[in-house]
Amino acid sequence: MLKKISENIKEHPIFFVGYLVFLIGLIIILFNYSKTESLIIVNHSWSSFQDVFFKYCTYLGDGWFAVSILVFLLMWRLKYGFIATICFSTTALITQFLKKVIYSDVARPSIELYNDFQNNVLHKVDGVELLKGNSFPSGHTTSIFSICCLFTLLFSKNKLGPIFIIIASFTAYSRVYLSQHFFEDVFVGSIIGCVGTLVIYTFLQNIKWGSWAEYSFFKKK
Question: The pTM is what?
Answer without folding.
Answer: 0.95
